[in-house]
Amino acid sequence: MSRHSQATGFDIRRAAAQRLQLVLTGAPFVPFQQREIADSRDRALANKLVTVSLRRHGQISQILGSVLEKGMPKRAGLFEAALRIGVAQLLFLPEMGEHAAIHLAVEVIKKDRRAGRFAKLANAALRNVQRGFSVEDLDPKDLVPTWVFARWERHYGAETAVEMAKAVLEPVPLDLTGQSGDEQSDIFDEMGAVHLIGASYRLDDRDVPVEELPGYADGKWWVQDVAATLPVQLAAVTAGQSVLDICAAPGGKTGQLAANGAEVTAVDLDGKRLERVKENLERLKLNAKLVEADATNLSAEKQYDVVVLDAPCSATGTYRRHPEVIWHRREKDIKQRAQLQSEMLKNAAHLVKPGGTLVFCTCSLEPEEGEKQMGAFLQSHPQFEVRAIMPEELEGWAEPVIEGGFLRTTPNMSLPKNGKGLDGFFAARLQRTK
């Protein structure tokens, strides 16, 4: 892309619309990289346009439903994506100019082969948005799908559900997990990161790629949301223990376990994702045995002191970082994933030594993939009992400890110190008694 594209803005809007179009058809959002947009300012702008469009997706849908009397045109190329980018700029990025928002969105549509015939419709729609809508009038409930909000309202209460929905608008910091060592705090001090809990640190702002931050090349830390660190922290593994990490990729939990001196076997169904685990471990100078296998039928020939199962789930708890996730999900997906989790848990139970520990976790906010899953498992596996999680294990942080002795984080939750916001996670710690 031309380094001069920022002068007109057209190339940036077209690139953003093309990327957003991929997400609208079901792909995950992959931010633009340097090889795609060389100029850092242009790249940041393109990513911002797509990100704001995704974070405000539900509200923009409501707005477009009001200004497009006949609905969204079919087979219209970049029309919808470019229109969404235009609305995002008009309402949520006013500092970029209302005229530019309308003009550039219409130009992108006009010059797209399939969308061009709808350029006048786009112009009229955007001018109606300009005249008829303000941010203050928008309902935060529309930030997430109706069925998602209804579930959260039933499970967490109306007030918390609204706060959870609004969390999608909050800036997402970079959370890092550090290895042990006296020099660690110096590295995080150097980059301006603050301590959160355990070995987790947070960097609110950065102006360089992750790979250029202090300590990365030396393997002193890795990127991992603070919520994702908690299950392994609660497993409390010690040096020399045998640990099975099921569904290990991308390897954050594997790194935690190996850094504690455990003898780790990391299992994942996807060989390519395991390759990423291998690369991360090599950078971190940590060791683990990597096994490509189906977690629903692992051999029970060997049993382990600790088994950690970070099960595939709806991932609704990750919407702060990946706002498209909850729009790509359907309610039936939760039931399907819960069934898969049940099968994995049943197999994992055979792999725990008597007296050993089983940690189950998901990055889901849905009870079927957390509390209800555990209730069903414990009823059918009397040889396991809950080892209740205590606030003292979380440096006195009591809010995530819920009824039953489980852990539940929500994206609107305040951390024990230094900030607010983390992925939604559920974790249970069980002990095999016989």
TrEMBL record:
User: One Pfam family from the UniProt entry?
Assistant: Methyltr_RsmB-F
Top-level taxon in the UniProt lineage: Bacteria
Q: Which UniProt keywords apply?
A: Coiled coil, Methyltransferase, RNA-binding, S-adenosyl-L-methionine, Transferase
Task: Please list the residue ranges annotated as the SAM-dependent MTase RsmB/NOP-type domain.
Answer: 148-433
Q: Which InterPro entries does the record cross-reference, listed alphabetically?
A: MeTrfase_RsmB-F_NOP2_cat, MeTrfase_RsmB-F_NOP2_dom, NusB-like_sf, NusB_RsmB_TIM44, RCMT, SAM-dependent_MTases_sf
User: Record's PROSITE patterns?
Assistant: SAM_MT_RSMB_NOP (PS51686)
- Any idea which positions bind S-adenosyl-L-methionine? C247, A248, A249, P250, G251, G252, K253, D268, D294, D310
Residue ranges the record marks as coiled coil: 267-301
Residues at the active site: C363 (nucleophile)
The record ties this protein, via PANTHER family, to: NOL1_NOP2_SUN FAMILY PROTEIN _ ANTITERMINATION NUSB DOMAIN-CONTAINING PROTEIN, NOP2 YEAST -RELATED NOL1/NOP2/FMU SUN DOMAIN-CONTAINING
Q: Which family does it belong to?
A: Belongs to the class I-like SAM-binding methyltransferase superfamily. RsmB/NOP family.
The identity of this protein, by name, is MFS transporter
